[in-house]
Design goal:
CATH topology of the largest domain: TIM Barrel
CATH class of the largest domain: Alpha Beta
Distance between the termini: 23 Å
Strand content: 5-15%
Bound molecules: 2,5-dideoxy-2,5-imino-D-glucitol, manganese (II) ion
Largest sheet: 8 strands, parallel
Order of helices and strands: EHHEHHEHEEHEEHEHHEHEHHHHH
Strand order of the largest sheet: 8-6-4-3-2-1-10-9
Number of helices: 15
CATH superfamily of the largest domain: Divalent-metal-dependent TIM barrel enzymes
Mean pLDDT: 98
Length: 389
């Protein structure tokens, strides 16, 4: 019998070139692994069973590459995609690595830098569309401050909006079939990053000229860094029809951005996230924006990638068991029992409803003393996750 936790294309598991291609360099240490080429990384991802591969422009085409070099790299990459069957669902721009972006890209105080960021992003959009991307992610890693003396945050948001409005017009003008997904993070590498959480992004999107083509790309680690419940951010995005992409990984709260293997730390949070995505029928990529521990060689990197997908599938199965568990479902039914006595107050507002509701006598004593059996429900969940039911 085939391994039920073996990744299949229909699971839509994707990785960025920068994830499995991470050489393990960090703030305090040099690389521990040699660099692999995009073609080698495509074959590594095919070997572990991924569905797709994503990239920043410069993950694929070096910053100073000539047009001829660019065309050769893209041609080789396309051949590797054709040979392995991997697809490119998402692309993005690196607006954070080069020193020119040290004060941001779209929100930089230097007008020339802001316009260069537009130029670079348009080229990256062209590249992403050429390789089949339907979602374009914007992570504004450098859009922020160390000191609020340096930049008016309201002006920063206006610059961000101007850039996204211009780039939306570009996509429309080019007749590209492309949506934008904005990714938030509270800090690192900037002291404070503008639009720090998915909730902030959702509010900002409503101020854009073409908000219909703009959604979010919530990242597990980034909401946890902000001390927030990742599922709640994802649920709000979904409920607003704005969950255009998702970055899955793991993170210990109060730490720098660890981008750990999915499900390797917050198992319960990861379970409820997977349950939500599967329950609502999310059809987008399950993108792992994560990387292997610095201790690993490339066999360890493959273990990392396999582990992300395997844990997702194990939690998907646990979610199905939760939904099929008779005791859990009976408990949920009892918790949410409704005798229908309030139904007259539902639906459209009316003066009649107001007067009836204002005069309705509630049994405060009984309502306030009701036990909700949440301890039992949560323990059944723990039992299920720990494999004893
Ligand atoms: C970091 O979490 C960011 C960058 O890796 C990239 O721009 C984006 C795409 O997932 N995530
Ligand atoms: Mn991250
Ligand atoms: Mn990310």
């Amino acid at each position: 019998m085939s391994d039920p936790y073996e990744p299949q294309p229909e699971h839509k598991f994707t990785f960025g070139l920068w994830t499995v291609g991470s050489t393990g360099r960090d703030q305090f240490g040099l690389p521990v692994r040699e660099s692999l080429s995009p073609v080698q990384l495509v074959h590594l991802l095919a070997e572990v069973g991924a569905y797709g591969v994503n990239f920043h422009d410069n993950d694929l085409v070096p910053f100073n590459a000539s047009k001829a070099e660019r065309d050769q790299i893209v041609s080789d990459f396309k051949k590797a995609l054709a040979a392995t069957g991997l697809v490119v669902p998402m692309a993005t721009t690196n607006l954070f690595n080069h020193s020119i972006f040290k004060d941001g890209a779209f929100t930089a105080n230097d007008h020339k830098v802001r316009k260069f960021a537009l130029q670079k992003t348009m080229q990256a959009i062209d590249l992403g569309v050429e390789l089949g991307a339907k979602v374009f992610v914007f992570w504004g890693g450098r859009e922020g401050v160390e000191s609020d003396a340096t930049k008016d945050p309201a002006l920063g948001l206006k610059r961000y909006r101007d850039a996204l409005n211009f780039l939306s017009d570009y996509v429309i003008d080019q007749c590209y079939d492309l949506k934008f997904a904005l990714e938030s993070k509270p800090n690192e590498p900037r002291g404070d990053i503008f639009l720090p959480t998915t909730g902030a992004m959702l509010g900002f999107i409503e101020t854009l000229d073409h908000s219909d083509m703009v959604g979010v790309n919530p990242e597990f680690a980034h909401e946890v860094m902000a001390g927030l419940n990742f599922l709640h951010a994802v649920a709000q995005a979904w409920e607003m029809g704005k969950l255009f992409h998702i970055d899955l990984n793991d993170q210990n709260v109060g730490r720098f951005d660890q981008d750990w293997r999915f499900g390797s730390y917050n198992i319960k949070q990861s379970f409820f996230l997977v349950k939500f995505l599967e329950d609502v029928g999310y059809t987008g990529s399950r993108h792992f924006d994560a990387h292997a521990y610095r201790t690993e060689d490339y066999e360890g990197v493959k273990d990392f990638a396999r582990g992300c997908m395997r844990t997702y599938l194990i939690l998907k199965e646990k979610a199905a068991r939760f939904n099929a568990d008779q005791e859990i479902q009976e408990l949920l039914k009892a918790i949410n029992a409704d005798d229908g006595s309030m139904s007259d107050f539902d639906g459209e507002y009316s003066p009649e409803k107001v007067s009836k509701l204002k005069s309705h006598q509630f049994d405060i004593q009984t309502l306030s003393q009701r036990g909700l059996m949440y301890e039992r429900l949560d323990q059944l969940t723990i039992d299920l996750l720990l494999g004893v039911r």
